[in-house]
Write a structure and sequence with these properties.
The complex is a heteropentamer.
Chain B: E1 9-14, H1 38-42, E2 47-49, E3 56-58, E4 61-66, E5 72-77, H2 91-103, H3 112-118, E6 119-126, E7 129-134, H4 141-146, H5 159-162, E8 186-191, E9 195-200, H6 205-208, E10 218-223, H7 227-235, H8 247-256, E11 260-261, E12 271-272, E13 277-281, H9 291-300, H10 303-310, H11 329-337, H12 348-357, E14 361-362, E15 368-370, E16 373-374, E17 376-382, H13 386-401, E18 405-411, H14 413-421, E19 427-430, H15 441-445, H16 471-484, H17 493-507, E20 510-514, E21 517-518, E22 522-523, E23 527-528, H18 547-553, E24 555-556
Parallel strand pairs in B: 1-10, 17-18, 17-19
Antiparallel strand pairs in B: 2-3, 4-5, 5-7, 6-7, 8-9, 9-10, 11-22, 12-21, 13-19, 13-20, 14-15, 15-16, 23-24
Chain D: E1 2-16, E2 23-37, E3 43-48, H1 54-62, E4 69-74, E5 77-78, H2 84-93, E6 94-97, H3 112-122, H4 128-141, H5 146-149, H6 159-173, E7 177-181, H7 189-206, E8 209-214, H8 217-223, E9 226-231, E10 234-240, H9 241-246, H10 251-259
Helix pairs in contact in D: 4-6, 6-7
Chain E: H1 6-29, H2 38-50, H3 56-67, H4 73-85, H5 100-134, H6 140-149, H7 157-171, H8 191-228, H9 231-238, H10 243-280, H11 286-295, H12 299-327
Helix pairs in contact in E: 1-12, 5-8, 5-10, 5-12, 7-8, 7-10, 8-10, 9-10, 10-11, 10-12, 11-12
The structure holds adenosine-5'-triphosphate (ATP) (2 copies) and magnesium ion (MG) (2 copies).
One adenosine-5'-triphosphate sits between chains A (18, 25, 27, 47-53, 65-66, 101) and C (2, 4, 291-292, 294).
Chain lengths: 267, 558, 294, 283, 336
Amino acid sequence: MSNENTSTLSVSDLKVYYDSINGDIKAVDGISFDVKEGECLGIVGESGCGKTTAAYGILRLVQHPGKIVGGQISLHGKPIENLNEESFRKIRATELALIPQGAMNSLNPTMKVGKQITDLIDTHKPGISSSEKISRIEELLGKVGLPNRTINMYPHELSGGMKQRVCIAIGIALNPTLVIADEITSALDVVVQRLVAQTLKQIQKEMGVSMIMIGHDMGLMAQMVDRIAVMYAGKILEISSTEEFFRNPQHEYSKILINATPSIHRR
Amino acid sequence: GHSKARNKTVVFDIDGGKVAQPYNFNNLVPGTTRSNGIHQAVFEPLFILNYETGGIDPWLGESFTSNSSLDVWTLKLKKGIKWSDGEDLDADDVVYTIQMLLDDSTQSLRDAASMQQWVKSVNKQDKHTVVFNLTEPNARFQLDYFSVKIYGGVIIIPEHVWKGQDPFTFKFYDKEKGWPLGSGAYTLKSASETEFIYDRNDNWWGVSQGLPLPAPERLIWAVTATEENRSMLAAKGELDSVMDVTLGAFEAMQARNDNMQAWFSELPFSWLDPCARQLSINTQAEPWDDPAMRWALNYIIDREEIVRVAYEGTTIPSMTLFVHYGGLFPYIDAVVAAGMGMRLNASPHIAQKIIESKGWTKGSDGFYQKGGKTLEFVIKTHEGFIEKRRITDVVVEQFLDAGIKAEHRPIAGATWDNDRYTGNFMGSMDWHSCGSINEPYASLNRFTAKYLKPVGTTSPGGNNYVRWDTAKSKEFTQIVDKMGAMPLNAPGMVDMVVDAYRLWYEELPFIPITQARKLIPFDTTYWTGWPTAENNYNHPATWWQSTHQIIHNLKPAK
Amino acid sequence: MLKRKSISNPWLNTPLVCGALVIGLLLSSTLIGNIFWDTELAATRSAPLNLPPYGFENMRKQEGVIEHPLGTTNSGRDMLAVMLVGTPATMSIGLIAAGIGMLIGIILGFTSGFYGGLWDDFVRLMADTTTTIPALAVLIVVQSLFRVEVNTMAAMIALFAWPGPTRYIRAQVLTMRESGYVKMAKLSGAPERDIMFKEMLPNLIPYLAASFIGNTSGAILTAIGLEVLGLGPTRMPTLGVTIFFSLEAAAILRDMWWWWGLPTLTLILIFMGLLMINVGLDEVSNPRLRKASK
Amino acid sequence: MSLLTIEHATKIYKVSSGFLGEEKKVRALNDFSIVIPEKPASITTIAGESGSGKTTIANLILGFTSITSGRIKFLGKDLSEMSSEELFNYRKNVQAVFQDPFGVYNPFYKIRHIFDLVIKHFKLVATKSDATKLIEESLGVVGLKGDEVLDKFPHQLSGGQRQRMMMARAYMIKPRIIVADEPVSMVDASLRAGIIDVMLRMRDEDGINFLYITHDLATAYQIGNQIYILYRGDVVQSGDTVDVINNPKHPYVQLLVDSVPPPFYDENWSKPVQMPDEDGNLV
Amino acid sequence: MGGLTLQYALRRFGIFLMTVWLASSVIFIIPRLAPGDPIQSMISRMSESAGYVENSEKIVEGFKERFGLNDPMYVQYGRYIGGLVSLDLGVSLAMFPTPVKEIVGRALPWSIGLMSISLVLYFFIGNLFGALLSWKKTPFFAKIAISASMIFTSIPGILCALILIYLFAFNFDIFPFTGSYERGLEPAWTIEFFSSVIYYGTLPALSVVLVTFGFWTIGMRGMMVTVEGEDYMTFGQAKGLKPFYLLYRYQVRNAILPQITALAFTIGTIVAGQILVEAAFAYRGMGSVIVNAIKDVDYTVIQGTSFILILITATSVLILDLIYPLIDPRITFQKN
Ligand SMILES: Nc1ncnc2c1ncn2[C@@H]1O[C@H](COP(=O)(O)OP(=O)(O)OP(=O)(O)O)[C@@H](O)[C@H]1O
Ligand SMILES: Nc1ncnc2c1ncn2[C@@H]1O[C@H](COP(=O)(O)OP(=O)(O)OP(=O)(O)O)[C@@H](O)[C@H]1O
Ligand SMILES: [Mg+2]
Ligand SMILES: [Mg+2]
């Protein structure tokens, strides 16, 4: 496993269950991994295997009837699982940021895009002058390739790809230590998908943030991440570097994943 | 200060919700309200019928006498009467008023139709004397129209104000000009949908004639909404005079306000209203067209139970079709002595015999049946009159117990009237034998054959809408018509009443039920001198024009 | 494939069951009451007047008697019997009105949403129009002119209870019309009637149930509004009629709290019961609350 | 004779804003023509970006929307001239599998319902036991067993299972052609292969034609015989699949081909892509 | 603003006119379905107090002629609609010769005043309570209190009014029993008059608010639960926004949209409900006008007041439609 000093986030034995009348659904059942500084970790697995739940577990966003049952999470080596609600709120977006799955509905429909970025800044960095805020927002939008006029638009006026990019802008707005990107491209069409993925990759490199990228498109993963974790039924089957993973997958399931991926280069 | 000291003010209530037309004091138009204080304190009557003595008290009028053939009536006015603006009220105003009613070809002004029926011409004899030439003899001309027999009568209007106005659209309201204008001891200070305030006019004409000014400096008529609300206000001492309430409400007021009093100091507390309650039956609708069947109904009705339950003991059962006033006692006594008094209690077994003799048998559901038809009886009531609805509720139960499938249907007043007047009803709980106060003719006359109309057309004035149309009714009509041409309470009248009554009694086109009660609470905290059975200078109906008398009798408490 | 345990029947959640119990009990109160009480006592003049409940005193210092444990009214109705008889009567007005309103809503909503076109425009215009008509005013007029008894009154109230369901169902049908399973049913040769009522309708059941409950309380309130104006049925002492007569007799000032208080309390119970059912139905129909079973 | 012909199909949606409303026109498909021969069975791919009119084609063929101009012929008979009996017959021969494996199941019913519907309305068999046999057989083709799935509710099954059952349903009717509108785009990578495999087998063993609608060039490349690439309602390039993908001519086709991520660690995306501008012009 | 075109506004206005016309026609027909006519009713009222009225059939005929009640129905209908177009509501039948416009005009300001004050209150309180009821951070006792306060919803308005009168006017002497302002005061633009109006309006408004807010609470709670499940709520949390900000700017802001729609649609119903309360307080509004008119079968007044209620609802729906895109940016005029 990784070296303590250089690991941004370390998760060990995280368990998130959903309450149900017939007992708990073990959506995340004891997963452990590290993310090193500047590294991009991919998590793949079939739909419903617990990827989103794991992300929510780390960010403490699990909604009722879900509950975090156990696990240690530390950020820069400091445990954060015991922080109180208010302190935890403060590290969201500043240290641990999320780019959500389903960007289509992740923006407040009755708020202009600009405001949805400002309210984040106002909450965590109060006292910034409004001109400074505007230039900051314009810079962010520029980074994700959106025109400045986006500030005054409502979410429904944006295309899916644009919305996804707004979410990315929000995710990186406060220079967080770690960004968790949850299936950010699965709802987009191939061309847009590629564009968004490239944008994110570029930003990650520029800012040097650590990233967890969740998805199930092996092709995309191959292009984007440094290490891959394969999840199945709430557990992590294997974690290895991308090169290693494609060359020498350990698990049967991993092999299926790789082989099932069609290509336009080999028929 | 917009408010006067409480102990100088008398507060009356107006029931029945907001006054819809507070700024229209044209009393000639039928739709306007006049019991909002205007006819109790401002518009004075010519005479006031005294319910207690049976006599007629003079007010603006001094005397109203007829010739022996009863077709020329001479009115003498008191001297020195003035309108509140200082103009004289004299024979000219009377003639002007009556003439206006005679001239209304549409007959839609209030009293226009009756004046046109009776008055051939009206003439001023001198400043204080007016002569009426009638179309035919009428012994009750003064009584019926000029003496507040019930509610009010013809109101004299000031010629100098009305001249040149369209009597249909004139509102008689203008603060600048001091309208409305009357001769009473009070003038209108302010009006609104919910209250009317009158202040005393210290220049009232009576003062110059040696009459004392009334004591209250201000009179208020206020809309008090629900029974609950009204009772609470009275219990708090915020109302001096309350219109008709239920016994329970009165008891609750008394429990909280020692100074509440009513006509009697104990049960039944109430004063009797002139319109006794009756169950009218459509005498042309099967199977109730058979007098025997109507008698069966009468046998089922338990009047005592009705008094006990529907009235909580605040009234008395009707012995005859007449109201129990002193002036009518000779007739009531004679009828009862002749064996025609109504029973207090039910005799269902007699009813059963009658009904069964008509071929009805009780079915498995407990109701009488004949030829596959159930014996039904639907009683329509006026939705707004709780008292009649409560009587009907009890009667329906009595009928149901006796095997008649009775039903109670309260409906809107207009529909109810229309249904009855056109004969679209089986039974109706109402009061239409109302009319006689101090002589028997008025009530009997309403059921004579001359008012008969076929089912589907409107009965005139709601007279004989039960459509009593038999040989006996014709005979009845002859006797009653004869009575009408005789002076009031002429000798021999008692026997004629008994004869006519017998014809009616045998066929029973409607069934007298109870006397109507009005439980009218007064508060003596600030004012005394309210009419009671002991201090019975007149009756206590404060929404009638006779209220002038009450106001002049009030004294400050302490 | 992750093993997903299915959550047990969502219709069996606590609020729904409690609410249904309360409502069921109140609805069957006449039946139950007949076993231990003489419900004929609800009729006028079947008991002494103005008695307080057992153990209390009225203004005249009369004590309550065990023969009339909840007291009596000023027309000699036994309050216990009145409550037993009046409660289901009041509720049935609500249920019938909501039922009819719902039925109209289903028919109009489905046909207008499914077929669209002129018919759809017409239905929407009618719904909009009906919404603007002040129902209470019209009902007051009709009731005071014709005076109808419980069932007809319910039917009249229903005439104003359909636009809501119609509008909602229409919107749902418009969405469902585009859904995959409707297309599949078409591809499977199913006739339109089947598509509407066998494919679409069942999915609306939780909503229809919730809306039915909501409309029931609305209809009950409308009925009560008419009744306290004195425009209710006559012999049947529904809750509103009872309150009307109590107010006509100044029951509050007379300290006859049992007379207006008991029907009011029952009304509160009815509404709480219906509210609980609604909350329970929410749990059934709200996708978020149901995610667990997905 | 060709099995299915589309001649110069154009579809214009009229978007009206309700009662008395003004109308706006959206040209979803423009002068589209295609011929699918009766034999041999083939898989014809229609690819293109989102909103390019792919689903519109499916809806036209399936009769869910009316054609604005042009004609669709099945075995030489014009769709719009068919009697209701012929239309019913057409339904039996032209079936579909859709993108969303959840939405096509009525959540109210058990899985069995989709098979029952078909059997009932198309009167495929007479007896109950025949029906059971038929269902089992069809499920077998997609590698499922009746007792594992039939009495479950749709949400109790995986996306892959649901999508395969849709294939089984279509297969049971034994149509001449199946319109498959993005049948794998909502299914996991690991399950995708299974479904593609089923399609291939149905083509090769049962002679069923497919109209395969997708935006995923990679799978099309794997199985398609012919391809039509749509861009904003127009066909921009068509021909043999391998040809088209290996030699993209139209700039949009080039962009599309470029955007497919190579699923191998050692092959990288070459250069950053450029999006079409807002008016849809390719730069 | 989503392109508010003249064409859209005109079309929307056309629908408005059509609904008003249809609804007014219904209002015209209904009172005429029953036997009984207003003039007869007037006579009946006279005879209630005066025993009986002689020659009443003459009066009835005279007035029927005067009001054109003997004309064929279509003539009456034409006259009615023609009148509405010029906002002439005719002359009251029962209170001849007062124009309906005058009667309604006197009552309307009071009703509207009472309505707007109570509307603001119950809409605010109802939605606030609904929001608090579904918010995780609301203290438990507050939730209990809110739930308990909803029992008022099931109490008939008139009874609630009387209980309030009993408590606050009778027992505690805090507020007046009835009326709209102090006895003897003349309406004027003075502080004295206004404070009196507010003082007298408190109990009526309170009654309306108490019996109404619960509906909004229930509706709001439902909407809050729905919105809580939206992705943007989770994302808002992930942004580390403060809980209260998240509550009002994200959750409430979106949950309240259907509530606003519902408000526009139910405004007529609410005003109608207010009628009973007004009657209990002998308040000067439309309540008693309507109740009396119905008792007297005063067609013109019934039609006039109902027409006003129809206008209120139709107008509020129209306004809602026109301003909705401001409240909900997703809605544009072109879509319906
Ligand atoms: N609110 C909930 N209640 C109960 N179970 C839930 C809830 N949310 C998710 N689950 C269950 O938890 C498991 C993991 O869900 P999760 O959303 O984390 O999967 P995922 O890997 O992100 O899937 P996808 O690729 O579809 O996004 C699933 O089995 C799901 O059914
Ligand atoms: N019912 C409809 N009414 C109006 N416009 C429509 C309708 N259906 C589709 N369109 C429009 O027609 C165009 C083509 O849509 P279509 O659904 O055929 O695209 P698609 O290629 O299937 O896209 P996707 O990949 O997103 O499924 C789009 O611009 C769409 O907005
Ligand atoms: Mg997920
Ligand atoms: Mg599509």
